[in-house]
């Protein structure tokens, strides 16, 4: 099933939220004895589940799992945009505390937190006899997982959070990442891992599980550089036998095999429900019909096929995919493909393989003015002739999948004990599924060396060969494996920030741009361009301003929205 909503109860509960937030003076003094009150609503398992559904509903907000993630995508090294698109300010790091996405993301995350707080607070007083089996603990565990996730997103997008853990909390001071993590995120996830089931029945697909909690807790420890605890969490998930990489990586980015064996934390979307009078992709008010679509496909899909292509793969990412060398001995490549399976699932270059929205790739315009590739991941290229005219997509969004856990686990092995040999094993599991040469195969074929694929061969002429060490394998994880496997899944900027390499990456990629700008004739921009990128007409300057403007203290995290600064008189106390 695509959703877990009960629309009537969902709508009623949203009304109840509004009702309970208003003062008594706003209502007539005459009381309807048949009306449902706060006290009577928070009394049954059915109503708590209805309330919990609204917490899940907040995951569908576009800044959390949908179309507004485009503003995150362009902040790192995997994507650029054009000056006429709204994400341009984020690509160049010229946004401020009043810009749309800065406030939208904050507000949407705190809606989720408020809803979770209501469930958590009221369930403490609920009568145990009104709940069947373990349902009371399971409801609280789900709400606490979701609150932890929302707070993780606030903390690592804004450099901390206002810690609102009770329904009545309003003006409170800003807390550090460390305080938020230790006060709310870790305790909530520990509770969740202890009380969530390992799986749900088919009628409850989309609910978080033990594996969701373990994986997110491992990620929290990873970001805290608590390598042993992170490693332990990931190892439990890996060894549980619950999860497995899907044979086809594409199964993680379509609407055809959702909640599959690789999925650990997935947000359900549907393009089938009526959007209601407002036309919003996600209708989240009592007067609407409960539509729950994502707008990401239209935002990043190619302009020639009904999208806006506001996010464009960087030359760096495109070149990484080009040199993601297939292994002809891997049975996954029996179809005769010359490009990796994850390239075909993630981006479309001019010389890509297969059909694109049902046509040959170069059959429609859009391959000039510096555009070397477009984003495929999370678009509807595989089954539609164009993106939906109402900007609606039903492809679920995966926040955590097993491939990510493998790569995070590999990182903990390196950072904790320097065990790069076992780290290679887990990196190679991901590479093998993609149909590309494993690191071990490179080592076997090249006198125990492997290529530094993040170094541009177009610019520098060759990929330097290096021996495997903790440092070189970690660099491969940072600069090659994670961007190739996880591009456009919402991880990249947080990764670059936690590793402290934003400045280094931007500087290197700006140097590559300068080389291309100085070698226009060699690149044959006025003709058809040359392999591997086939750039035409101009070099897109993705890192020109970003490299100049970046300052860690100013840009690692988004500013606190001006609306919060103006209304929260305790913020800086």
Automatic annotation (TrEMBL):
Keywords noted in UniProt: Cell outer membrane, Membrane, Signal
Location of this chain's protein in the cell: Cell outer membrane
Alphabetical list of SUPFAM superfamilies matching this protein: TPR-like
All residue ranges annotated as the RagB/SusD domain in the record: 262-572
Segments forming domain SusD-like N-terminal: 26-222
Signal peptide stretch: 1-23
Main subcellular location: membrane
Chaperone listed as a keyword: no
Record-annotated membrane-spanning stretches: none
Transmembrane found in the keyword field: no
GO cellular component term, pick one: cell outer membrane
Gene3D superfamilies: 1.25.40.390
Similarity annotation: Belongs to the SusD family.
Name of the protein in its database record: RagB/SusD family nutrient uptake outer membrane protein
Taxonomic lineage: Bacteria, Pseudomonadati, Bacteroidota, Flavobacteriia, Flavobacteriales
């Amino acid at each position: 099933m695509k959703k877990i909503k009960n629309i009537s109860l969902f709508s009623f509960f949203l009304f109840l939220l509004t009702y309970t937030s208003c003062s008594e003076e706003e209502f007539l003094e005459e009381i309807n004895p048949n009306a449902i009150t706060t006290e009577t609503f928070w009394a049954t398992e059915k109503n708590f589940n209805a309330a919990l559904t609204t917490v899940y509903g907040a995951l569908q907000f576009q800044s959390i799992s949908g179309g507004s993630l485009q503003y995150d995508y362009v902040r790192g090294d995997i994507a650029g945009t054009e000056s006429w698109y709204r994400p341009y300010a984020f690509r160049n790091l010229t946004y401020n505390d009043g810009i749309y996405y800065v406030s939208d993301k904050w507000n949407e995350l705190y809606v989720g937190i408020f809803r979770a707080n209501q469930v958590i607070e009221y369930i403490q007083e609920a009568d145990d006899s009104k709940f069947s089996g373990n349902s009371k603990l399971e409801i609280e565990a789900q709400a606490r997982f979701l609150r932890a996730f929302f707070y993780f997103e606030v903390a690592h997008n804004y450099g901390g959070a206002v810690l609102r853990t009770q329904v009545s909390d309003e003006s409170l001071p800003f807390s550090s990442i460390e305080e938020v993590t230790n006060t709310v995120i870790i305790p909530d996830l520990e509770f969740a891992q202890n009380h969530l089931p390992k799986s749900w029945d088919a009628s409850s697909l989309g609910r978080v599980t033990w594996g969701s909690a373990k994986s997110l807790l491992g990620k929290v420890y990873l970001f805290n550089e608590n390598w042993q605890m992170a490693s332990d969490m990931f190892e439990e998930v890996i060894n549980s036998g619950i999860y497995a990489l899907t044979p086809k990586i594409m199964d993680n980015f379509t609407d055809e095999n959702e909640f599959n064996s690789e999925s650990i934390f997935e947000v359900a979307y549907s393009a089938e429900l009526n959007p209601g009078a407002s036309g919003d992709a996600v209708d989240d008010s009592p007067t609407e019909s409960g539509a729950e679509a994502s707008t990401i496909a239209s935002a990043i899909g190619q302009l020639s096929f009904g999208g806006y292509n506001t996010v464009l793969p960087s030359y760096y990412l495109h070149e990484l995919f080009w040199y993601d060398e297939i292994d002809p001995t891997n049975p996954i490549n029996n179809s005769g493909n010359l490009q990796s399976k994850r390239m075909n699932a993630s981006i479309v270059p001019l010389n890509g393989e297969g059909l694109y929205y049902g046509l040959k790739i170069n059959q429609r315009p859009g391959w000039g003015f510096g555009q070397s590739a477009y984003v495929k991941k999370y678009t509807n290229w595989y089954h539609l002739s164009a993106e939906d005219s109402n900007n609606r997509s039903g492809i679920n969004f995966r926040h955590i999948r097993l491939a990510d856990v493998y790569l995070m686990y590999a990182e903990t092995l390196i950072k904790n004990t320097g065990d790069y040999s076992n780290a290679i094993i887990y990196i190679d599991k991901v590479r093998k599924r993609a149909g590309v040469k494993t690191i071990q195969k490179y080592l076997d074929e090249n006198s125990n060396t492997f290529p530094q694929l993040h170094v541009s061969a177009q610019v520098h002429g060759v990929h330097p060969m290096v021996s495997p060490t903790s440092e070189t394998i970690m660099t491969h994880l940072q600069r090659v494996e994670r961007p190739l496997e996880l591009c456009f899944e919402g991880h990249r900027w947080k990764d670059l920030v936690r590793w402290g390499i934003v400045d280094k990456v931007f500087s290197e990629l700006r140097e590559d741009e300068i080389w291309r700008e100085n070698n226009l004739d060699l690149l044959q921009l006025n003709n058809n361009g040359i392999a591997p990128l086939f750039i035409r007409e101009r070099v897109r300057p993705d890192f020109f301003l970003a490299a100049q403007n970046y300052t860690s203290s100013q840009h690692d995290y988004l500013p606190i929205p001006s609306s919060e600064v103006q209304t929260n008189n305790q913020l800086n106390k």
